[in-house]
């Protein structure tokens, strides 16, 4: 790694609105620099997680070091591919701390969207060089000139600085690499100073412990060095250092200005804080500023399906939060569900992805309660508190066809279904981003869902008074559709305090043996029923499959 003096290093991120083509551009850059084989059908190579491949979205920022020859000089380019969805913007802001520039990718057909604006300002505030890249110029409806004008108008970047490419076909991608070298400055670091390494991400490997992604601001770190964590003041020996290429490739050393990984026998989340500074033993330094902590917007209770799984789930949550530090975790317990946690997420998609990763990567089976947002309640006998609707704050025309509107919304009106409704109403044209605007007063009620008179803890929710009836009715109808019939009638009710506001009745189950028929079919049915029982939760004497909770959650979204 000593072959790369600081002036031959460029650290940059790819940022964009969701689906504008970041991961596809990253594939082409990996191919062009020979990091991955060009002959293979490479698709979103840096999206390594199963959940990313299944959903076709990036949820985790990924780092790759590329080696590139330009005019006789060898460059080391450290690329960080970031997620586009608003729920994962915390990943973006952290990644930018290890960079001096960004490629701001904009779809040549869709033009500037909400996360394009949000990401531009993240980069601008961090004083990074911004290279606008207009992607998908191969599309029939592409209009790169219109997008150039938008970029000039909204971001004040001269249109001749835009690079027009097709990441899919590879058209003009080489000029992106040229621009990275010419327009992004090398990092401002000092190799002769004592080591200062920022931990900007980390993952947990079952055999090797914590693998920390580090950006070196000063000095050098070598295998065998004794290092100290500024956060815990614990000392460790470095077992391995290296670069991600895009898989781990050990190197004996990492030098200031470089980005790579480090393994030093850290075993848990408390030892490996994201934002921590590592320095050499006996050479203490002023720690780097670290990161603002993420502010969770959506909260849900999480419990093991089976209480004997509590410790396994605890360890799975700890390992996964190491890789996703934006999730907040507090111990919680419920009479009905036993011991569990209250988790805070940045949005509903974030919650779904976290749950899916727990199931896929840690084989955990969990019950999640209805997501809620935080409230501050002032107990008062008078009716002073008035509900507030969205209030328009301002309106800016981006060009003839596009307008940017700012509103003040109650958070619970937007986290669940707002984005989907906006997309369908605008035929996919409108996009959306949000930030916290503090607490407001509102008329809210706590709504219980009862099965034969017993409260279903997972479905207790806070709703606006005016919407309680329609949401309660929809939940009861959906529960009726998704609950299996049982040997007795079930009353499904929505209640506010002692007042019932909606009711459905699930009729009695008819035994399959009444119909006679093929014995093997009956055995199959019984076997399936027995397997299904493992995933059942008993509420009073009513058995509720886990799927039913998920279906009901989705009902709430559509109301
Ligand atoms: N026609 C065309 N399609 C492209 C181009 N670049 C990307 N795509 C397609 O656009 C879709 C989204 O591309 P991705 O690279 O996954 O987008 P992304 O910005 O990484 O998405 P997120 O990480 O989820 O935000 C995929 O179906 C790509 O095949 C391009 O240059 N031309």
UniProtKB/TrEMBL annotation:
<dbReference type="InterPro" id="IPR027417">
    <property type="entry name" value="P-loop_NTPase"/>
</dbReference>
<dbReference type="InterPro" id="IPR005225">
    <property type="entry name" value="Small_GTP-bd"/>
</dbReference>
<dbReference type="GO" id="GO:0003924">
    <property type="term" value="F:GTPase activity"/>
</dbReference>
<comment type="similarity">
    <text>Belongs to the TRAFAC class translation factor GTPase superfamily. Classic translation factor GTPase family. LepA subfamily.</text>
</comment>
<keyword id="KW-0378">Hydrolase</keyword>
<feature type="binding site">
    <location>
        <begin position="135"/>
        <end position="138"/>
    </location>
    <ligand>
        <name>GTP</name>
    </ligand>
</feature>
<dbReference type="GO" id="GO:0097177">
    <property type="term" value="F:mitochondrial ribosome binding"/>
</dbReference>
<feature type="domain" description="Tr-type G">
    <location>
        <begin position="7"/>
        <end position="188"/>
    </location>
</feature>
<dbReference type="InterPro" id="IPR009000">
    <property type="entry name" value="Transl_B-barrel_sf"/>
</dbReference>
<dbReference type="InterPro" id="IPR000640">
    <property type="entry name" value="EFG_V-like"/>
</dbReference>
<protein>
    <submittedName>
        <fullName>GTP binding elongation factor GUF1</fullName>
    </submittedName>
</protein>
<dbReference type="GO" id="GO:0005743">
    <property type="term" value="C:mitochondrial inner membrane"/>
</dbReference>
<keyword id="KW-0547">Nucleotide-binding</keyword>
<dbReference type="InterPro" id="IPR000795">
    <property type="entry name" value="T_Tr_GTP-bd_dom"/>
</dbReference>
<feature type="binding site">
    <location>
        <begin position="16"/>
        <end position="23"/>
    </location>
    <ligand>
        <name>GTP</name>
    </ligand>
</feature>
<comment type="function">
    <text>Promotes mitochondrial protein synthesis. May act as a fidelity factor of the translation reaction, by catalyzing a one-codon backward translocation of tRNAs on improperly translocated ribosomes. Binds to mitochondrial ribosomes in a GTP-dependent manner.</text>
</comment>
<dbReference type="Pfam" id="PF06421">
    <property type="entry name" value="LepA_C"/>
</dbReference>
<comment type="similarity">
    <text>Belongs to the GTP-binding elongation factor family. LepA subfamily.</text>
</comment>
<keyword id="KW-0342">GTP-binding</keyword>
<dbReference type="Pfam" id="PF00009">
    <property type="entry name" value="GTP_EFTU"/>
</dbReference>
<dbReference type="GO" id="GO:0006412">
    <property type="term" value="P:translation"/>
</dbReference>
<dbReference type="GO" id="GO:0005525">
    <property type="term" value="F:GTP binding"/>
</dbReference>
<dbReference type="InterPro" id="IPR035647">
    <property type="entry name" value="EFG_III/V"/>
</dbReference>
<dbReference type="InterPro" id="IPR013842">
    <property type="entry name" value="LepA_CTD"/>
</dbReference>
<dbReference type="Pfam" id="PF00679">
    <property type="entry name" value="EFG_C"/>
</dbReference>
<keyword id="KW-0472">Membrane</keyword>
<dbReference type="InterPro" id="IPR006297">
    <property type="entry name" value="EF-4"/>
</dbReference>
<dbReference type="GO" id="GO:0045727">
    <property type="term" value="P:positive regulation of translation"/>
</dbReference>
<keyword id="KW-0496">Mitochondrion</keyword>
<dbReference type="Pfam" id="PF03144">
    <property type="entry name" value="GTP_EFTU_D2"/>
</dbReference>
<dbReference type="InterPro" id="IPR038363">
    <property type="entry name" value="LepA_C_sf"/>
</dbReference>
<dbReference type="InterPro" id="IPR004161">
    <property type="entry name" value="EFTu-like_2"/>
</dbReference>
<dbReference type="GO" id="GO:0005759">
    <property type="term" value="C:mitochondrial matrix"/>
</dbReference>
<dbReference type="InterPro" id="IPR031157">
    <property type="entry name" value="G_TR_CS"/>
</dbReference>
<keyword id="KW-0648">Protein biosynthesis</keyword>
<feature type="binding site">
    <location>
        <begin position="81"/>
        <end position="85"/>
    </location>
    <ligand>
        <name>GTP</name>
    </ligand>
</feature>
<keyword id="KW-0999">Mitochondrion inner membrane</keyword>
<dbReference type="InterPro" id="IPR035654">
    <property type="entry name" value="LepA_IV"/>
</dbReference>
